[in-house]
């Protein structure tokens, strides 16, 4: 659980410091966050490193598309802070670490039921009693439910629910970023934050789990050492 403590502790600190800081401070936080990510990855297997890389690339594309371009949510300086891409990598590693814990592995069905109950209640509140109607959150909760029931790594999605939900609440409460009331079409209402944000984030996790093995195999084929298997890759991505 040390990875969880480092990742969540550092990201929380970054969000708190960035809530009322100058742009140069934000950039400095980005540089340090990259260093933290590299340090954490140095202790991981090749498979997890590639998975994290996929998450960082995929999430960065989404960030630049949905924040500066479409303005579905906006950061304080109308940019994508430098700490956000490596921050997504740390979020993935924290969720993965939670999924690896003995309590989640042994009690994954119970944990799934609890996440579905908590997430479903949160989503229901968002579309009924919340000050801002949250249809997007309910849709994303549906995605999360699908990942939990049929996805390739239940433990990872349980971890993602805990980590992403926490960070979305903290980040929006501090004003580090703010979600718009509706999507660009004006048809889909959005909470601040969306209740089912972890379900949206789950697509990053799915991309990592599906894309990393063939990418790693491709890299091994072109490696001078040949396609020898990494002995610590087995199960690195989490299993049911």
Highlighted features:
2% strand; globular; two-stranded antiparallel sheet; 240 residues; mainly alpha; single chain; 69% helix
CA-atom Rg in angstroms: 18 Å
| Range of strand content | under 5%
Tally of extended strands? Answer: 2
Low-confidence stretches: 231-236
Would you kindly provide a written description of the structure presented here, covering whatever features stand out?
With 240 residues, this protein is mainly alpha-helical. It has one domain. The protein has helices at residues 2-18, 23-41, 46-69, 84-100, 102-106, 108-128, 135-150, 154-174, 197-221, and strands spanning 73-75, 177-179. The protein has a two-stranded antiparallel sheet. The longest helix is centred in the C-terminal third of the chain and has 25 residues, at 197-221. It is globular, with a radius of gyration of 18 Å.
């Amino acid at each position: 659980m040390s990875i969880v403590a480092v990742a969540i502790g550092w990201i929380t600190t970054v969000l708190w410091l960035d809530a009322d800081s100058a742009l140069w401070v934000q950039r400095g936080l980005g540089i340090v966050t990259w260093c933290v990510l590299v340090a954490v990855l140095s202790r991981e297997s090749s498979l997890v490193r590639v998975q994290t890389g996929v998450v960082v690339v995929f999430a960065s594309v989404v960030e630049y598309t949905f924040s500066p371009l479409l303005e579905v949510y906006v950061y304080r300086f109308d940019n994508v802070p430098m700490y956000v891409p490596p921050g997504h990598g740390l979020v993935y590693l924290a969720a993965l670490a939670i999924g690896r814990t003995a309590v989640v592995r042994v009690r994954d069905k119970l944990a799934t039921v609890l996440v579905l109950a908590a997430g479903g209640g949160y989503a229901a509140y968002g579309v009924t009693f919340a000050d801002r109607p949250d249809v997007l959150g309910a849709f994303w909760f549906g995605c999360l439910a699908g990942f939990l029931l049929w996805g390739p790594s239940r433990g990872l999605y349980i971890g993602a629910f805990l980590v992403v939900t926490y960070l979305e609440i903290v980040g929006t409460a501090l004003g580090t970023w703010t979600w718009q009331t509706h999507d660009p079409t004006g048809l889909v209402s959005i909470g601040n934050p969306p209740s089912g944000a972890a379900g949206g984030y789950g697509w990053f996790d799915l991309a990592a789990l599906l894309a990393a093995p063939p990418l790693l195999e491709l890299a091994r084929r072109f490696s001078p050492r040949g396609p020898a298997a990494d002995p610590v890759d087995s199960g690195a991505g989490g299993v049911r």
